[in-house]
Amino acid sequence: MPGHYGGQPAYIMDPRTEHKQGRDALSVNIAAAKAVANIVRTTLGPKGMDKMMVNSIGDIVLTNDGAMILKGMDIEHPTAKMIVEVARTQEEIAGDGTTSAVVTAGTLLDKASDLIEEGVHARVLVRGFENAAEKALEILNEFSIDVTEGNREALEKIASTSMSGKASETNKEILAALCVDAILQISKKGSVNVDNDIILRQEPGKSVSETEILDGIMLNKYRVHPGMPKTVKDAKIAIIDTPLETQKTSNTSKLQISNADEMQDFLAREEDDFKQMADHIIQSGANVVICSKNIGDKVAHYLQKSGVMGIRRVSDDDIKNLSYATGAKIVKRVFDLSEEDLGHAGEVGEEGESTVAKIFIKKCENTKVITILLRGSTEHVTDNLERAFDDALHVINSVFEDGKIVAGGGAAEVEIAQRLRHYASTIGGREQLAITAFADAVESIPMAIAENGGMDATSVILKLRNAHVENPNIGLDIYSGDYLDMVEKGIVDPLRVKTQTIRSASEVATMILRIDDMMRAQKKDMMDVNPEHNIHNYNRPF
User: Fold this and answer.
1) 249 is catalytic
2) In this predicted model, what pLDDT tens digit does every residue of 381-413 receive, in sequence order?
3) Which regions of the chain carry the CATH code 3.50.7.10?
4) Which residue, 32, 74, 295, 357, has most beta carbons within 10 Å?
């Protein structure tokens, strides 16, 4: 970046630094944001298309979940990373609507680009977008409908809408009911934390309709010793977070043995240590031992002789969940274990054969966590099912907390757009152009849903606008092609998903519009060509 002193250029910045200013910087940033939005736009709606993601070792992910797609991409451009951050924030706060937030942000910037070409200053656009977002949130609150925890039918409809296009459509109602059951079951214990209180486990090779809620935990483990009992009724469970075997010393050490008698004595003392370890566990009353580390063969032998089931190398997360489910305390030293530390379950059993077996801890009366066992024909099916359940559980929980829903099927977006256009007409100056552009961007969501369903988007939007003169809840039923009252049809969304979409999209758009100078420490050749086509690298693992 040269200045001039006495007719000679004075460099105050490394000339190798990539430096863009004014409209150049803005156009590059807008192109990157639009590119991210265009990648996920085709996945929007119940009839959205899927993306195949393949990493460097050939693992495949098939999904139309916007958050998963953006997470899997190796983003290079800094502005594109800001758009991906929008998706991450949307997922954390609302649990769904990631694709809508990204598409809305991309469309906002596209509309802004057109207005800037017409001579509207970026600052005017920022002010207009901020006013429009504030008005849109006000409209959404007026448009929303109150829902109570006892309205199970409404909760199931919310879960069903969230799962549309993500899970098995033929079993959508059954799966939605399971989501509601899970939330209601956990809510009886107090506040709900979906990420901590509900565990999702996959079991490929079965039908989706066999998906069920377990009143306990499933572990992808098997018994340490085949002679141990396969099923334990009225289980008293010890959770031990230390190896049940000979431990290495922290410092390098040597043992001098000069004759066979000393060797025999050493082995006898070691054997006695293992026996004491096992005897202490047995005397505590435990008939199931779950260890986060290894259970040595000799300890396993003594446990097996006393009819105790042993399970080893259980992950830290599962150990924590087992403690919540059974009430067992996690013990760090074996000889500190007492009867008061034991947890309880109606039944602990192994199902399946050999190394593909699974351990089920069932009938945990005071459990603070539950497990949803997701079943499907293949791993790809159960993977998609897990993502669908995760979204549905979070949106139900958001309705529990907020108690408000809005009509789906594009009804909310069209109503916001209609009212924003009316609001824009009351605003003087060029700011009204920004508010109208905001309305068009919001309306891009039902347009994308219609396009992905093979319909004429313009025709759909015009019909929805006309229908909203009479009824603000009219939306598009993408399956039948009819224009119906979405609340009566049961196609609804949590208010939080819509409000967070507006906030996220408007904030990132205004943030990007404020940038008029872009400096990079090193020039990236791939970004010099065309940022819209070079925001990611498909050769990197996702």
Assistant:
1) no
2) 888 888 888 888 888 888 888 889 999 999 999
3) 222-249+257-356
4) 32
CATH number, span 222-249+257-356: 3.50.7.10
What gap in Å lies between CA 243 and CA 13, rounded to an integer? 58
Looking from the CA of 523 toward its CB, the CA atoms found within 13 Å total 10
Backbone φ and ψ of 357, nearest 5°: -70, 165
Task: Scan for tokens 């829902």, then name that residue.
Answer: 147
14 is catalytic: no
Total-model pTM? 0.75
CATH topology of domain 19-146+407-519: GROEL; domain 1 (1.10.560)
- Tens digits of per-residue pLDDT, 343-354? 999 999 998 876
User: Rounded distance, CA 466 to CA 459, Å?
Assistant: 11
CATH 3.30.260.10 domain range(s) in the chain: 148-217+367-402
Amino acid at position 150, single letter: G
CATH topology of domain 148-217+367-402: GROEL; domain 2 (3.30.260)
Contacts of residue 344, defined as CB under 8 A and 6 or more positions apart, other chains included, come to 234, 235, 236, 237, 326, 327, 328, 364, 365
Residues 79, 99, 104, 501: which is the catalytic one?
Answer: 99
Asked about 110 being catalytic, the answer comes back as: no
Phi, psi of 366 (to 5 degrees): -110, 30
Which helix (H) or strand (E) segment holds residue 520: the answer is strand 517-520
Instruction: Check if 211 is active-site.
Output: no
Which residue among the candidates 391, 436, 501, 510 is catalytic per the annotation? Answer: 391
SS (H, E, C) 263-293: HHHHHHHHHHHHHHHHHHHHHCCCCEEEECC
The single-letter code of the amino acid at 32 is: A
